[in-house]
Amino acid sequence: MSSLDIFRYYKDDPSEFIKQNYNQDQNAQERHLSNLLSHSIRISKEIFPDIGKGIEEIFEELKVENNFNFFVTADHVEANAACSVMPFSNKPDIIITSKLVELLSHEELKFVLGHEIAHYYFQHSNYPHHSQAQSRVEKLNLLNLSRAAEISSDRIGFIVCNDIETSLRAMIKLASGLGEKHINFNFSAYLDQLKELEKIGKSDGQLWSSHPNFLVRMQALIWFSMSKEYNEFKNLKGGSYSIKEIDEKIDKQINKIVGNELEVSNKEIYDRALLWGSLHLYMHDNIFTKEEQEKFKKRFGEKKMTSTVSFLKMSKGNISDKIKLAFQEANTLLKKEKTNLIDELTSVGKEVNKDDKEVLKKVSKFASYLNDERVISFK
Fold it and tell me: Is residue 109 located within the same domain as residue 126?
């Protein structure tokens, strides 16, 4: 899937993957498969020729091996699909509902199946689930990752169905739950709702959602279809924007609806940890010299410098509680931000005294607080 990795939305960040430590017994996969075989039907060309043909077309388009189990399950209410990756299994399961099959055309169904296949190849199951979050900010960060994963997967769904209008039709059907006889596929009219959403502004519903709404996803996919990378991949002439430019446009679009609460919260947490961590390094010898104060002011500004000196006088130089709280909060940041934080503190440590092993130890301790396993060096 490396050839398709260039299409990954930039906030869908594999550096956030976690090591999966499965305590589940190895019979769990057999029980899971047994349940699927008992209550669903495995998709094959012999039983479901049209769906089976579509699956073959998908893997021919992606040029990857089909190592999946596909099942259809009876559900005449929910039009849905899911990719399930069980421990100890080398075969992911994709389950689609009968309602989904009835609702979508052959090509539209390929869009949804391609989307689910992408979740596996992009290894989205390695993201920590937002239900595991220990704080509000951590949960918001994990939900943001989940939304980003959907943007990436939509792109692969579009690639395998080969047509932007087909992809958008599938999305409108899924958003409405209605079939073709009820819909005039006027995409522009539907996307007018997005403009209304933007006027309303921040929505808590979207902030706490694991999926972007279909309006945002449709606009994101239209922009993606204009990318140079997509058109080159398909050997087409065209492409007005780079993927990077498109990702920036999508980011701005999402922020209009989700708001910037997460961005502001992350920055405040990051800045607090950087400030108190830096102060701890400057005061490694329990002295905050005039020279060090000037360096601190240059880095954080005069206002922060004044309030910090005032706090030091009141607390008699005891900042241990501040450091503990700041790094507890910093642990809720994404790995990329934590890595950047340690890099900045390493830079401060070098500035303080690159030859002092005690300063290096303090930076290494900060890294351990944030589960950064790198060997810290001032070289």
Answer: yes
Longest dimension (CA), the chain: 81
Residue type, 152: S
Which of 211, 241, 259 is the C-terminal boundary of a domain? 259
Look at residue 185 and tell me if it is in a domain.
yes
pLDDT digits 0-9 by tens, 198-213: 888 777 888 899 999 9
Residue ending a domain, among 259, 290, 322, is 259
Q: Structural domain of residue 234, as residue ranges?
A: 24-259
Residue 117 pLDDT grade (very low, low, confident, very high; cuts 50, 70, 90): very high
Tokens 């931000």 correspond to what residue? 337
pTM: 0.87
- Both 32 and 160 in a single domain? yes
Rounded CA-CA distance 275/271 in Å is: 6
Is 288 part of any domain? yes
String of DSSP letters for 180-233: GGG----HHHHHHHHHHHHHH---HHHHT-SS--HHHHHHHHHHHHTBHHHHHH
The answer to whether residues 89 and 201 belong to one domain is yes
Report the half-sphere exposure of 8 (CA within 13 A, side-chain side). 22
Give the pLDDT confidence of 279-302 residue by residue, as tens digits.
999 999 989 999 999 999 999 999
Beta-bridge mates of residue 94 = 70, 83
Provide mean pLDDT across the span 77-98. 89
Look up residue 255 and give its two tokens.
Answer: 């922020």
Rounded CA gap, 283 and 145, in Å?
37
Structural domain total, the chain: 2
* pLDDT per residue as tens digits for the range 12-35: 999 888 866 655 566 777 888 889
- Could you tell me if 184 and 272 lie in one domain? no
Q: Clarify whether residues 158 and 305 are in a common domain.
A: no
Residue type, 90: N
Which 8-state DSSP code applies to residue 135? S
pLDDT score, position 203: 77
Instruction: Give the rounded percent of residues in the chain with a pLDDT score beyond 90.
Output: 77
- Please give the angle made by the CA atoms of 174, 176 and 182, to the nearest 5 degrees: 110
